[in-house]
Here is the input.
Amino acid sequence: MTDLTINGVKHTHNGDAAMPLLWFIRDEVGMTGTKFGCGVAQCGACTVHLDGQPIRSCVTPVSVAAGKNITTIEGTASDKVGAAVQASWRKLDVVQCGYCQSGQIMSAVALLAKNKAPTDSDIDSAMGGNVCRCATYVRIRAAIHDAATALA
Amino acid sequence: MGIMKRITGNDGKASSTTPLINVSRRSFLQGTGGLAIGVCLGPVACSSKDAGTAATAASNIPAFEPNAFIRIGADNSVTVIAKHLEMGQGTFTGLATLAAEELDADWSQVSVEAAPADVTKYKNNLLGGQGTGGSTAMADSHEPMRKAGATARAMLVSAAAAEWKVPASEITVSKGTIRHAVSKKEASFGQMADKASKQPVPTEVVLKDPKDFTLIGTQTATRKDSAAKTNGTAKFTQDVKLDGMLVAVLAHAPHFGSTIKSVDDSKARAVAGVVDVIHVDAVPGVNRAAVAVLAKNTWVAKQGRDALVVEWEEAEAFKLSSADMFKQFHALSAKPGLVAGTRGDTAAALKKPAKLIEASYEFPYLAHAAMEPLNCVIHYTGDSCQIWNGEQFQTFDQAAAAATLGLKPEQVSITQLYAGGSFGRRASSKSDFIVEAATLAKAAYAKGVKAPLKMVWTREDDMRGGYYRPAFVHAIKAGLDKDGKLVGWQQRIVGQSIAKGTALEPYMVHEGIDHTSVEGTSDTRYDITNLQVELHSVDYKMPVLWWRSVGHTHTAYAVETMMDELAHAAGKDPVEFRRALLEKQPRHLAVLELAAAKSDWGKPLAPIAGMKRGRGIAVHESFNTFVAEVAEVSVDADGMLKVDRVVCAVDCGLAINPDVIKAQMEGGIGFGLAAILHSEITFDQGKVVQGNFGEYPMLRINEMPVIEVHLVASAEKPTGVGEPGVPPIGPAVANAVFAATAKRIRKLPFGDQLSA
Here is the structure.
């Protein structure tokens, strides 16, 4: 039995503790904003926060997340940085197909939480693990700068 | 993807260089009788919640439904019904803009809902069935959607005139409010909706003069899917959860053409939570044989799948390796092929030119690799079937599922969800993954599994599932006279046909020529007096498919890099050289010159220490849209290439949503860059070598150039933008690399060729 706190709400997982957190969040809790893209931590579509750190939930067993605070895209609006990032994403119409964007936003929020004025190089480092096949990168970069300005 | 531009495309566009393919839109439409099978379903419940859109529940009780495309609720909501799939290209926003413009709705009251599968109401007139592709959505729908909006507006106005007892001509509508200025009466759409529904539907409506547009061409009409896609509520197929639903993960045969020989599923069945194991036989030429593990959740199903021991019968399997295939392609390129297009006397012109340039190009197989791996939710009940899917080809898929299940097409309903990318893959010419889902559902039902099933492909299933952009070899010979004028061009193209062996073959293959193999060359608008384009089509058991911009993905690269070689051989500036050949093509010229001007073409690039720098240009027409791109690159001493900046000029006729057009050019450039720099699917004895993003790298943010997009102002009919941004980027970058390093890259992807 594993106790998990997701967006401030406690959940219990009774199955295989080796199951990646992604599938607990999606299939058991039923929150589907966090996406399955590659299953091997190469695309970042499954990015969530574990005690504020961005992690790839597709390779993180639920046992590792036990007792920690998990934040998903569904919970990020209640955070000041999260709300600002989402607002900039909407303002610049960043999205295209949208499938990777939850993960992009979670990585961007983690970046801005620790770095209030990221440079382009900081953005490259923090966002390099998040693939966007639609290549919305021009706007992702602009939206991160926009959110940084809004939060300043 | 773009299936039929070459069929629907160039009619009516006079050209000094006569298009060589004699297929017209008319002949295609005449030929579509067989495609437009008589499906009449009536409205299928397709709730806005399922579609991931923002319509309120109250709007599901329509007060006013003037036509198949608009619903106005008593709550003042305006719902636009979108017949085209939203896969990122901005169609939902475009369709809503067109309808809302003529309706004079307030943008904030408008939401979008996906249409059900119903070809009687939602046929794509440019494709011949219900479907999305070929960058046709705006071209197909701009007039019908505007008329739908204007019709609704006229009925609201008539209702207000009757209610207020004033002449309709004195009533104005603006931002969702109906007004009569003299009597100071006003009403919202919601207040007038019920009365409007009782008005006669006008047979003729007058569309706005473009000078009166308040949404089309403005920044007001922002994306309708932005909110749902930034807060995690947008619904994709992967997100569907139904009562009692089971998840199916499959062990696919590693080769096309294999069948199931034996299965030991004892270990799979021992995984806690596994419900059943189902054999999914292949339809030859369509999909791969598979064994599916059904479970309550995805992880358990995958654990079960991984525990299967399957032996495959490989006697009929596709077993070729990439090296053998390219060897065959190159050998064929040395021999004359079927003539796809001819002008003048190319053989004579190339006998003794002052300069003869010969080059051979290699283009690999490419996977679409959309972020959402393929999937499908299906519920078969014996006499009906419901499908939930990022649905791109309703008419085909409905028929294919019905045929697999022994049903009539009208017994198959399809709920269209957002697609997490497609790039052509979800418009399967053989409905491969729909057929697989239906085969699975039928086999499961026969074993007593009555639950809805969510078929989930892993990334590896997706990448190894075939339906690639076909590999090609091009061999070009071109001659210049003593003044550096292009006198002859011979191009031989070798590769698999996309249409051959599909239901589209009769419409897309003519006298052995699949136009998608040669588009962009045989119909080039360059004024080349002596031109011969020949084709060899190769047959393999491994199916291929359109991939964002289809034939233009390789033809533009070959033609535009050869143009650059010829310009250099002629001692002319590449822009000047092209200009001379495009004198009679004003729209090509306009984008060429705009891109050149905005990129400071001709002025030296700012030096960067330790870097060789260069600028390259390419111009290409695809899907009736004209795009020129200038790339600026830097190459360091180790041969590391960085594309620093791209300046893009686009003419897609009337710009409905300028910001969406810019976004599609940005995305198309990034998508094209990934391919030319990194992407390659290879075969080892028929097995696909690449499985995940480690072996098939994606473009990442650090590789994305700065991009500037400039739109040519135009009153021409709107054309598509989903694909046309892709073709010019490869040759623009290759030409820039030549300018920087004097190296010609003729084999894609670039990989590490610059460091060699």
Notes: The longest strand of chain A covers residues 2-6. DSSP finds six helices and five strands in chain A. Chain A has two domains: 2-75, 76-151. The domain at 2-75 of chain A is CATH 3.10.20.30 (Ubiquitin-like (UB roll)).
